[in-house]
Q: What sequence folds into this?
């Protein structure tokens, strides 16, 4: 896009800001980076516009039946799993790492967009391995236009890793085929650089996958 296109976008950004649009909303609507929007509108008076809550339609009969089935099966699942003891957590974390963890020697790494998955991994590695907390690192992958500060705070809470131990984030280009609210806080990569720890992890993974006690 040439210089003239940028002038048009800048003018549109200033108009939207004056109407009360947030930086993220403007960036998403115009398809530009939030940092560019911030520079363009920094001298524009801003007063947040009130949020209008859309009225939700009552669920139909099919939706109610589906939700009832989901709730019933969730309750059954919780009853079957129950509380995890030490061995359960060891096996659950090992299975999680077998599917989602990094296999390269020298570094324990886990990448996911689901906070519950990342939290379970962090709990597992802290419980079963003698790690140095100062060597845990987090890197975020977040689409342009989404709130990086909010994402940093969220993932710091999930991982228990302080913000000053976060690596430089990766900003992905906006993908119009993905809803902006699908991964509001992006994807987190948690790494722990230690060859011995990684080999211990992979020892558990191989032991689990070669276990002879699995039902046929």
A:
């Amino acid at each position: 896009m040439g210089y003239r296109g940028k002038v048009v976008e800048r003018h549109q950004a200033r108009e939207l800001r004056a109407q009360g649009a947030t930086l993220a909303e403007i960036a998403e609507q115009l398809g530009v980076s939030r940092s560019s929007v911030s520079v363009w509108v920094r001298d524009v008076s801003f007063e947040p516009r009130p949020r209008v809550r859309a009225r939700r339609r009552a669920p139909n009969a099919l939706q109610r039946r589906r939700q009832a089935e989901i709730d019933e099966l969730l309750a059954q699942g919780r009853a079957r799993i129950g509380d995890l003891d030490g061995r359960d957590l060891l096996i659950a974390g090992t299975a999680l790492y077998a599917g989602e963890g990094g296999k390269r020697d020298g570094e324990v790494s886990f990448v996911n967009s689901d906070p519950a998955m990342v939290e379970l991994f962090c709990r597992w590695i802290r419980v079963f391995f003698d790690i140095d907390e100062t060597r845990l690192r987090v890197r975020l992958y977040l689409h342009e236009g989404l709130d990086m500060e909010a994402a940093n705070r969220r993932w710091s809470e999930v991982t228990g890793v302080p913000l000053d131990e976060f690596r430089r984030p990766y900003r992905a280009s906006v993908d119009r085929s993905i809803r902006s609210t699908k991964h509001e806080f992006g994807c987190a990569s948690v790494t722990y650089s230690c060859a011995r720890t990684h080999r211990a992890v992979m020892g558990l993974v191989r032991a689990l996958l070669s276990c002879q006690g699995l039902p046929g």
Observations:
- Helices lie at 3-18, 23-30, 34-40, 61-81, 86-100, 115-128, 148-159, 195-209.
- Residues 107 and 193 are 4 Å apart (CA to CA).
